[in-house]
């Protein structure tokens, strides 16, 4: 390997490399890909990378940059070297995700009804009640088929010990799946020969599965319900994804202003008048969903939507209130939830987490700020975070004060040595840290996990932050098919 | 179809057509000027006059030089009716309805916008004949891709209405301006014209060859008849109005459809007049009347299809797209 032009002096160093083992030998499933890369003439990868970037710009696969000049759009940086996930590993991940979503769903249903987990002393009451995303308005709600979280994106990381850990759950409006599909599309166009021998499992049927999941929660069991995607609008950073999913499912993309509630029934305003809506895949946070019940100043939502939902006249995915499990302190209790509700051992462990409102944990965190990662309970996108190893004394002092002022709002985790994947850096490869966000669809009758997911990569050398808002990019994720077990999967049903 | 989506599709095609026609406008002026260099400055001034934004031009540019006028009409971001602004607004409308149009059509429009945006960085030097030809070509490409990838459902018909109303308006403006700048005196009407200048006008609407097939020699009456009253040439006012009516019929609407009534009134007017009558009664007055009626039709369409949701909303939540039609001046 090491004497070839593309890999040059490539070193895995002390990190877990997803493509090569410590001796530079390709991992199982990665050989055909490496062979193909090595056969490309020098400079070819860079040329194709640039042509992919141009294609993404032309196709308008962009996100809106906040705080920048109005309407500035950028493509999500894309690296052409895919991340490989071997068949046996994917089986493990899939089993873990299915177990986790089941437990989370039972938890959410429990806390909005009996709160047994609180009464039995597993989860402290004040921890629950102080969760910003806990919605009292949702107490007693009965979502169709008892399912709260239909669409989940769970962030996974691999540590240098080789094990996969759950970093966080995203149950509100997880985004990124459109990039998974489009990354695959441009990869297939640009490197068809790479796919030839690799047995990559397809991702193309995500929109069909999503539509199936959404249809299955139609409140009156109508097999052909009117499904819509509800977006905050063109200025939302994930607007591209909203329109992509609506287009791929062949449903209307609506904004709050397009919907009206009359007699607890939701209608959309069409050129022919009012048309009843049955299922809403909402990409608007709870707070903005219904100014009547949540934030009064919301211009994005629909007044009366929650009443229509309560009456069982419309289904919402995900259900309001689901976001409670995104709270990073609640997240720390998921392994206990799996024990409590399912009587099972978690298949995928959490990253070890210190809960700052616990006295012993807080003491430890404050003494070890320089080596821990501190996170606010309800921030996302890499904001409200302290990476101890890269921090200044001033930053640590600031976070120490924040933690002491509001310990409920903070958790801390050890700094993980995230695994790496070779990444195109000009004329050679260097290892860059990655995480993985697989997507899970839960319709009540079945759970479906997209074979793949969004691999986010920290493009800056040595950086551990993979968020797009912090200079991260993405890679195609190749889940390698097990020839026998995944045979049916290779025949995609659209 | 969602009213908001119908509205955006209608404006998307209007803005694309607007950009295309502006490119035609500038190109024909350049052509005419090349054939009579001594009158160059005089030719650029009326072009700015037709925009009704002469004041803005004088404040920002001053002299009616070729490069000033080109910059103003082509690349001025602050000026809402420049080619760049029109394409930018077409693209923003398309972006809000991407799920309702084909990816192929979206990509053509997006690419066209990005190319014009890129050319704008180079300034007036980039605004040459090749550039305007490319803007026109991209617009044709969009229409072709749109026509061959979209189902003939409401979205397509609204796109058609927007496209043909805008085209009718712009053909009338080209004729209006050129008639007065090219025609020396009333006595010349109905005489055989100097081919050079009027053929340039016909070329600007890609109508020269079709005109020749139909009439062979050039006379003012025939040019007016061809561009205003012809029912077969796709850029004549009558053809555009008739096509828009066909699409209006297909989208349906309320029983008392004021948009259809208004459109029918315009068509009746075009059916019941000859080119000779138009010219004798004053071409400019006739065109002015048609333009006003086209504006009224635009308003009627808004009332009939897009504004209904405003009444239905009890709360006065007016978002961006609801105010769009006000900022999209019909009388550029």
From TrEMBL, chain B:
Instruction: Tell me which Pfam families the record gives.
Output: Alpha-E (PF04168)
PANTHER family named among the record's database cross-references = BLR5612 PROTEIN, SLL1039 PROTEIN
Alphabetical list of InterPro entries matching this protein: ATP-dep_Glu-Cys_Ligase-2, DUF403
Domain of life, per lineage: Bacteria
Protein name (record): DUF403 domain-containing protein
Q: Where is the DUF403 domain?
A: 1-306
């Amino acid at each position: 390997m090491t004497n070839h032009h593309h890999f040059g002096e490539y070193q895995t160093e002390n990190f877990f490399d997803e493509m090569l083992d410590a001796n530079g030998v390709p991992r199982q499933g990665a050989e055909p890909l490496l062979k193909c890369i090595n056969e490309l003439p020098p400079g070819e990868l860079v040329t194709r990378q640039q042509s992919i970037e141009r294609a993404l710009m032309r196709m308008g696969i962009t996100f809106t940059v906040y705080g920048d000049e109005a309407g500035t759009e950028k493509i999500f940086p894309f690296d052409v070297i895919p991340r490989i996930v071997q068949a046996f590993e994917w089986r493990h991940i899939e089993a873990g995700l299915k177990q986790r979503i089941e437990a989370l769903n039972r938890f959410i249903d429990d806390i909005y009804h009996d709160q047994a987990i609180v009464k039995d002393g597993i989860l402290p009451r004040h921890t629950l009640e102080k969760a910003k995303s806990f919605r009292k308005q949702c107490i007693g709600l009965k979502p169709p088929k008892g399912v709260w979280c239909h669409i989940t994106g769970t962030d996974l990381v691999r540590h240098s010990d080789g094990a996969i850990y759950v970093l966080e759950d995203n149950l509100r409006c997880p985004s990124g799946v459109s990039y998974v599909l489009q990354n695959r599309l441009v990869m297939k166009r640009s490197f068809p020969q790479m796919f030839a021998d690799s047995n990559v499992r397809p991702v193309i049927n995500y929109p069909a599965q999503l539509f199936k999941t959404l249809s299955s929660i139609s409140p009156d069991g109508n097999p052909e319900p009117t499904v819509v995607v509800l977006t905050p609008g063109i200025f939302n950073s994930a607007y591209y994804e909203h329109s992509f999913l609506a287009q791929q499912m062949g449903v209307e993309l609506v904004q709050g202003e397009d919907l009206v509630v009359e007699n607890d029934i939701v209608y959309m305003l069409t050129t022919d008048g009012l048309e009843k809506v049955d299922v809403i895949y909402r990409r608007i946070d709870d707070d903005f969903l219904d100014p009547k019940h949540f934030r009064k100043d919301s211009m994005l939502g629909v007044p009366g939507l929650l009443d229509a939902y309560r009456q069982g006249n419309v289904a919402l995915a995900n259900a309001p209130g689901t976001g409670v499990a995104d709270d990073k302190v609640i997240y720390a209790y998921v392994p206990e939830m799996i024990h409590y509700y399912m009587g099972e051992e978690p298949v995928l462990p959490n990253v070890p987490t210190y809960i700052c409102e616990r006295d012993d944990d807080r003491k430890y965190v404050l003494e070890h700020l320089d080596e821990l990662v501190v996170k606010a309970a309800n921030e996302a996108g890499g904001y409200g975070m302290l990476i101890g190893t890269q921090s200044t004394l001033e930053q640590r002092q600031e976070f120490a004060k924040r933690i002491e002022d509001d310990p409920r709002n903070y958790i801390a985790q050890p700094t993980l040595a995230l695994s790496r994947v070779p990444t195109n850096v000009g004329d050679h490869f260097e290892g860059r840290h990655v995480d993985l966000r697989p997507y899970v669809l839960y319709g009540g009758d079945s759970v479906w996990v997209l074979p793949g997911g969004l691999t986010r990569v920290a493009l800056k050398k040595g950086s551990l932050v993979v968020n797009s808002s912090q200079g991260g990019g993405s890679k195609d994720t190749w889940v390698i098919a097990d020839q026998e077990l995944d045979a049916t999967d290779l025949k995609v049903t659209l | 179809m969602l009213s908001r989506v119908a509205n955006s599709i209608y404006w998307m095609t209007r803005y694309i057509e607007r950009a295309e026609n502006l490119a035609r406008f500038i190109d024909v002026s350049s052509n005419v000027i090349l054939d009579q260099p001594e009158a160059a400055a005089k030719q650029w001034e009326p072009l700015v006059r037709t925009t009704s934004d002469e004041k803005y031009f004088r404040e920002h540019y001053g002299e009616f030089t070729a490069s000033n006028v080109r910059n103003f009409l082509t690349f001025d971001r602050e000026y809402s009716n420049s080619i760049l602004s029109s394409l930018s607004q077409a693209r923003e409308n398309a972006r809000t309805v991407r799920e309702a149009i084909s990816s192929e059509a979206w990509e053509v429009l997006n690419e066209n916008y990005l190319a014009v945006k890129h050319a704008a960085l180079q300034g007036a030097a980039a605004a040459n004949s090749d550039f305007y030809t490319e803007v026109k070509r991209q617009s044709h490409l969009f229409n072709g891709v749109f026509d061959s990838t979209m189902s003939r459902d409401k979205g397509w018909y609204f796109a058609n209405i927007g496209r043909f109303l805008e085209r009718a308006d712009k053909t009338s403006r080209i004729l209006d301006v050129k008639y007065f700048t090219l025609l020396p005196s009333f006595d010349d009407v109905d005489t055989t014209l100097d081919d050079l200048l009027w053929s340039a006008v016909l070329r600007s609407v890609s109508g020269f060859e079709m005109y020749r097939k139909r009439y062979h020699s050039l006379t003012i009456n025939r040019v007016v008849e061809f561009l205003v009253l012809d029912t077969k040439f796709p850029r004549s006012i009558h053809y555009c109005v008739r096509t828009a009516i066909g699409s209006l019929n297909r989208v349906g609407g309320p029983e008392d459809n004021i948009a259809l009534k208004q459109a029918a009134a315009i068509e009746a007017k075009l059916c019941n007049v000859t080119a000779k009558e138009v010219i004798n009664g004053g071409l400019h007055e006739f065109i002015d009347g048609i333009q006003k009626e086209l504006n009224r039709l635009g308003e009627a369409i808004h009332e009939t299809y897009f504004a209904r949701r405003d009444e239905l909303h009890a709360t006065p939540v007016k978002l961006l797209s609801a105010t769009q039609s006000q900022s999209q001046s019909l009388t550029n």
